[in-house]
Inverse folding.
């Protein structure tokens, strides 16, 4: 057991729960947080090992994030690993989007990362160690039709992470980003279904991927776990695509 405390946002989702399992297998004590608190508790209960907990958390609420980090620090231990997985999106042409949609996408996908990082970084710097890994999207790197606002928010996560990595490198804290390509999750299937011909849309995505399939959550989790590990101690400010070859630039 590593004894590290790993806090994962969006931990009850498809990618988030896969990340939690990987971290638990590595010996971390995982704090599974999610907007759906009951689901977070269920994921934590199913993780291998001991010392895992689940709790509700809305990453768009800075004070709620601060309370959660304080409670985890007092009850479990200081956060050694932060993994930002929480995300939300809809497929909508930009000209049909509204300010309410912009706010929701930016709040969850970008401001949520600002909130969690702002609450854990000071203690990481003080202790001289820490790992932060944020799950963005290859939409941030190459753009994505029907996801202009989402791509912008995830691009902000990439730029923020690189900048933060520079600020905290001398304190032994690394900050990296994993950018999944199209991943087979309930969220993307629900988004595709809203277009009216979801199967055709997903088939088109598969044809565009050189490996000819959507990613599975378990394809994404090992990349996150590696960047969160001590094996990645000399890697910081990097963005790793896990896209089946969809983006090679």
């Amino acid at each position: 057991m590593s004894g590290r405390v790993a806090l994962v946002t969006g931990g009850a989702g498809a990618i988030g729960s896969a990340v939690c399992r990987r971290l638990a297998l590595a010996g971390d004590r995982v704090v599974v947080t999610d907007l759906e608190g009951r689901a977070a508790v269920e994921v934590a209960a199913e993780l291998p090992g001991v010392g895992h907990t689940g709790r509700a958390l809305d990453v768009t609420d800075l004070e709620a994030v601060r309370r959660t980090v304080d409670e985890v620090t007092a009850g479990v231990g200081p956060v050694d690993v932060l993994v930002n997985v929480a995300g939300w999106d809809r497929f909508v042409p930009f000209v049909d989007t509204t300010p309410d949609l912009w706010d929701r996408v930016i709040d969850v996908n970008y401001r949520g990362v600002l909130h969690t990082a702002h609450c854990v970084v000071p203690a990481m710097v003080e202790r001289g160690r820490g790992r932060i890994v944020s799950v963005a999207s290859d939409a941030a790197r190459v753009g994505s039709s029907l996801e202009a606002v989402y791509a912008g928010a995830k691009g902000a996560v990439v730029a923020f992470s690189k900048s933060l990595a520079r600020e905290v490198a001398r304190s032994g804290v690394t900050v990296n980003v994993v950018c999944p390509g199209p991943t087979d999750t309930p969220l993307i299937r629900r988004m595709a279904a809203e277009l009216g011909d979801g199967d055709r849309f997903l088939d088109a995505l598969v044809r565009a991927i050189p490996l000819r399939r959507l990613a599975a959550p378990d394809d994404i989790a090992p990349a996150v776990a590696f960047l969160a590990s001590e094996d990645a101690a000399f890697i910081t400010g990097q963005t790793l695509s896990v896209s089946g070859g969809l983006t090679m630039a």
